[in-house]
Structures are given as structure tokens and as C-alpha cells.
Amino acid sequence: MKLRPLPASRLFWTGAAAFAVAMLLPLYASGYVLGLLTVAYYTAVFAMSWDLLFGFAGEVNFGPTFLIGVGAYTAGILDARLSPGISIYLCILAGAAAAVVAGVALALPALRVSGPYFGLTTLVAVLMLQNFIIVAADLTGGEIGLAVPDVITIDASANYWIAFCFMTVSGAILFGLSRSPIGLILQASGQDKVQAGALGFNVTKHKLVAFIVSAFFSGLAGALMVFYMGTASVGSFVDISVGVQIIIAAVLGGRRTVIGAAMGAVFLIGMGELLRPLGELATLIVSVIALCVILYFPDGFVGMLRGGARA
Amino acid sequence: MTQGMSAPILEVTNLTKRYGGLVAVKNLSFSIAPGEILGLIGPNGSGKSTAMKSIMGVERPSAGSIKLDGVELAGLPSHQIARKGVGLVFQHSRPLARQTVLENIKVALLPDKLTHLFADKDTDGKARAIAARVGLAGVLDRKPATLAFADLRRLELAKAVARHPKLVLVDEPFAGLTASEVADFSQLIREFRVEGRAVLLVDHNVKSVSALVDRVLAMYLGEWIAEGAAADVMRDETVRRVYLGGALVSTARAESLFSDRTPVLQVENVGVCYGKARALQDVSLHVHEGEFVSLVGLNGAGKTTLFNAISGLMAYSGEIKWAGRPLRPGSPAQIARSGIVQCPETRELFGEMSVRENLDLGGNALGGEECARQLNWLFDLFPILKARQSQMARTLSGGEQQMLAIARALMMKPKLLILDEPTLGLAPVILETLSRALDRLRETTKITLLLGEQNVTFALPHADRVYVLDHARIVWEGPPDRFEAEAAANYL
Ligand SMILES: Nc1ncnc2c1ncn2[C@@H]1O[C@H](COP(=O)(O)OP(=O)(O)OP(=O)(O)O)[C@@H](O)[C@H]1O
Ligand SMILES: [Mg+2]
Q1: Does B373 contact A at CB distance below 8 Å?
Q2: ipTM reported for the complex, 2 dp
Q3: Closest Cβ opposite residue A194 in set B58, B110, B118
Q4: CB B468 within 8 A of CB B475
Q5: Does any CB of chain B come closer than 8 Å to the CB of residue A298?
Q6: Could you report the per-residue pLDDT of B342-370, keeping only the tens digit for each?
């Protein structure tokens, strides 16, 4: 009798292969490709953080860019104002911390309301941040964007490695958290908070922690990305369309999987770039692909890989 | 039994819960000793579940005191109350859908700590032990959606006792269970007593409650009306009037009285499979116009599957004919418009809409005047729905929701009404009301009724003819008076 392959094994090997390719890429790929992947990896962290909130805690955060934007702009503004008197690593940490503070300030009132209202609150937060950035142009660079004097490095492969390691470490932490007892309690709170309360779990506390973790990684990734790009603008960090892209990435890759979110992000950014010569049509094609996957494979890429192994 | 022997563990004093102007529980006081089972009975909407939820902290009491071992619970959030030693089995099962049975039990065993990143090694063993105790050992790796009804209830019980609560609140554990399952559950609850836990039990199965509890408290309109030994409370004049009601009377008509030569509903050799499992096998039955037919079967026998096939919600082999014509390939909406209305076991109410809106949706196809007439008749039948017209359906009590589901189906003026387990969660007195309503329908209209039940005390009096469905097959057919002698073994 042959051993039946575990349903996850195909997923495991795909992951291992992707990991190997990612490790070898800097040896062969052009700076352009590496740059693209660097952005994709940061986006992957945005999407994984979002998945922790939606997939596990059951809260739809329509404003992932609120957390990212606060992190990115805090880090960028500090550097723009105080450079060279401040280390950029301090700026980055400050960005992450600011995202957590802003996240808590948003989550505390937002978690009081449930269902769609939570999502709407987060959406409003993005609009408020966006308006603030435009109004306070002296501080933030307004619509033109904020130029940041320093970058971490200009070496493409070094930037690639930083983003890759950051994604791997955050992914491991988020994934581990989602599989831990806390992840299970989060899922319980997300599915039925009355029951979770009656079982002895402080639902608000757990959801708040999920929000804090999500905010921390979003803010940190946002801040790192600022020091990769050298600028911060509403269009690349805060705009609703950036948030939508992140949400699509997470859903496309497979909700409640964390890893899927990263796959979705790399896919979306990669496809967008491959099809760029087609101009406006590119966005349409990517959207159609995303739509088809969501409609026919509601469990996303990860679901496809798992399903494939089971058949 | 244990009453008076030890100090009470739970003391409720003047508990009151208001929802806006409605007083759901009013000045309720009682106590329970360790190792004592207190039964809480009362008609639908009398505040039993609300009292339980207030003790658990799921609802915040408006006034009064709730003391567990002398510690005040009123006003605390439910997670703190749970940690102080209270467990609640909800009236409706609410498992985590994406987790397996084992995982569902494990969740209940986890501590409420953020530092707890790795499961304790013994969690798995503990969860398995609990599962074995409540009889879930065979289905540990299944998802809740694939479980039989009774197993879902077992799972709720398992979760509630996982943390060894000192006080267990059990809301309608017997609803929808078969006689032998009720016996199993009674035994499990009796074990709580042996272990010294206090139990507060709500159920409409008067016989089983009486046999199990040490004491009974009866409520009506949120208030205490009687308390004492089960037999005494059941004899109480008010309890009889507002809760127990009278006996159901049988009025079967012989099949030969129905003159139509082709029955209006013909189910011929119908089969349904879920994957590899056969849910229905070669099922044939017929119903004449105006006839009342009961389909009796235990949980999982296939009643709901058959009804779903008739309503067009499920693919099947074989043929189902309505007024001589095949129903396939009609869509569920077309089938409903042709006069076949199913009132599903799961109720399927619009939870965020008011009672009135739910009813108006049912009467959508009727003209204004006819709609009003039908509505009046239904309000007559279920006065509580009239009083609750503007309340959101989701917040109705279990029994009130059941009444609303039946009323909404009747608003559609069906030609064939399919009632799937209508007695689930209804107080005895409401069963009597429903029974009289069905009799009146039978006398004054040409409505045809197909009734799915495992509660034969209700199914038999309302049937002209009975089918017994067992493990996906029809195993018996006949008039109700022969049922007891020939087919009753599993049901009484
Ligand atoms: N959130 C709410 N808003 C308004 N009214 C409510 C709410 N929750 C419950 N009620 C009302 O309070 C009353 C008591 O409800 P409860 O669920 O306690 O009844 P019950 O005794 O458990 O009935 P059943 O036997 O049918 O389960 C009902 O009339 C119900 O409609
Ligand atoms: Mg109730």
C-alpha cells in the first residue's frame, strides 16, 4: 500500500520551490526585477497583516493604508525634519510605534461597533488621513509627496535581501500566531463573539491584540518601504486603491492562510508589471483574473494547491 | 432532594431585565444548591433564556443581584463570569464552522491569556476525554456542518462543561432529540449532579424535565408563578392554564374519503445522495388534495432531504409530480409560486427585519385586502406576534421565532404546506394552539399538509395517514390508529 500524500504536501513543495527561487534570484536577475520584487515583498507584509485581522479576527479592515500611511509618513517626516541628526532605524521604529498608537486609537472605538460598521470606521480613517496629508502640506509634502533625504542603501540586491528577510520573519511570526491557541481564540471571537465570551474569552482584548500586531507590521513595512523608495506620497501609501490592492492580494492568495496573502501580493505586483505594456488594459486583465479566482476558487491560490493534491 | 442540605451556590434576587419598554424578566428570585437540578419552565417568551443569559452576563441585567458562592456577578462581562465557574449551553447550537469537533472542544479548554502561544500537551487528551464522555468520540475529525443534530447538541454540552463550571445553565437540551437521545442527555445531566455541580435546566419536554429535576420553577410573562416539586408545580392551576394546556385530540379521516383519483403530490422512487452517503433511497409516497399526511422519522432519517427535494432545493433521481405534472426542472421560486410552501426546520427568518416585515414578505403575492385578512387571522392565532410586530426577528425567543416561521408560511396561502419539525421549541400550550389552527385549516380550506415530525404525540393526531421514514427508506405506511401497534417501537 502506498502512502497517500498529505493534502498540504503539494503546498509545502510549492512553497519550498518558491523559497529556493527567491534565494537564488539576486544572482541572476536584473536590478529592475529585484526592485519590483522588493516592493512586492513589502506589499506581501501588508497583505499578511490584513489577513490576520480579517481571516482570523473576522474584522474587515477597509483601511489597511491608514496603518501603513501613518507608519510611512511618521518615519519619512522624522527623517526629513531631523536628518542627519537622527538614525533612520530610529525613524523606522518610530513609524511602527506610531502605527500601533494610531491603530489602538482607531480600534478602541471601532471595536465597539460590529459588522459592517467596523469596516466603515476604518474606511473613514483612511479618508481622514488622506485629507490631513493634503492639508498639512508644509509637514507632509501634500499632494506632491514627501522627499526623504536618506535611504537604507542604494544597492538593489541589498534592498532585495532586506525586504525578503523582513517578509520571511514577519510571515513566520504572523503564521505562527495564527496557528497558536491565540489564533484559535481569534477565530472563535470572529465567528461568534457571544459564545466566545461565554467560554471565558475576553473578545475585545484578543481583537485589540490582533489589531496591534497587524498595525505594527503594517507600519514597520510602510516605514521600511519609504526608505527604499526615498519618497512618500498619498498615491503609493494611503490611497484607497492601494488598500483595495492589498485586500485583493489577501483574498486572491487565500483567506485565513497568511502565506496565501504573500503569494497573492507577489502575483498581483508581478502581473501588473508583466502586462504594463498593454497600458490601461493591464489593470482590467489583472482584475478579471482576480475576479475569476475569487468566484471559482473562493479559497484562493492556497485552496487551489490544497484541492489539487486531494483530487 | 438536596434542597436544604447545603447552602445555595447560586442566589438570584429580584433579577429584572428590560428591553426598552418590554420587561422580559421581572423581579425573579431563586437559588440553587450544589448538586441540585432546578428546572425552569414557562411558555414561549416568558423570559427563561433571558434569565439564563443575564446570569451568564451575555445580557446585562437591568436590576437585581446574582451571587455565585457569595460573589456578585451582576454587571460583569461574560468572560469573567465564565471564569468564575458558570457555563452556558445555548438554546441554538453555535459551533465554530471551520474547526473540527476536536478543535471546537479544545478552544473551550484554552486559557484567556495572550502569553499562551503553545497549547499545553494535555489539552488534546483532555479534549478527547470530554468528547468520549458526551459521546462524540466517533466524530472527532468531522466539521460541525456534517454532524447529526444530536451530535451538535452534544458538542455544545462538551464546550460548556470543559472548564468544570460550578454552575451549568442548559437551555432546551432536549429540543429536537429522539426519545433515546433524550435519555442519553438526561443521564449526562444527572452526572453533573453527582459531581456536585448546580444545574439550571430549561426545556419544554415536560415529562423528561419532571423526571430529571429536583425542583421546578415556573415563569409567566417574566415573573415567578410557582415553585416546588415537579409534580406539584405541574398540578398548579395557573401553570396548567398558561403553560401545559389540554390534551391533543385526534381526528383522522380514511384515505377512501379523498375523491381525487390522482393524488395531488406524487413522489416516485426518489433517491438523493450526499457524496457517498445515501440520504434517500427509493422513496415513494403520495398525498391527496386536502389530506394531512405525517412523515415520522428520527433525526437523520431523511425527512428534511425529502422536503428539500420537493421544494426544488436539491437534486434527486426519480420523479416528483405536483397536480399530475413533474416538478423538475422548476426552480425553487417557481415551485413556491405553484403553491408548495415549505416552513423549514431552520426557520430561515429575516433576522434583521421586524416581525411585521417578515409577515408582509410572506403575504407579498396576496392582494391588500386578502393580506390584511390573513394577517388578522394569524395574529388571532399567535397573539404574541401581534404584540411583537415591530421587534426584530433575530431578538425573538426561540418559540416565538418558530411561530413566526409558521405564520409566514401561512401568509403565502399555500396549497401544499410542508411543516418540518414545527414543534421544535414550542411550549405545550402553543402546541395546542397550533393543533387547533391546523384543525381549522382542515375544516375551512382545501389546504394539503405534509408534516415532518419525530414528536409522534403531535404528528399522529394531525394525520389522516402516516409514513415512517427510517434510514433513508419508507418502512411503514398506514392510518394513525395502527401506528402504535405496528411501528411505534422507536418513537414512544
Ligand atoms: N434583544 C431583545 N430585544 C427585544 N426583546 C427581546 C430581546 N431579546 C428577547 N426579547 C423578548 O423577551 C422575551 C423573553 O425572551 P426569552 O428568549 O427569554 O423567552 P423564553 O422564555 O426563553 O422563550 P422560549 O421558550 O420560546 O425560548 C421575549 O418575548 C422576547 O421577544
Ligand atoms: Mg428560550
Answers
A1: no
A2: 0.82
A3: B58
A4: yes
A5: no
A6: 998 888 899 889 999 999 998 887 878 88
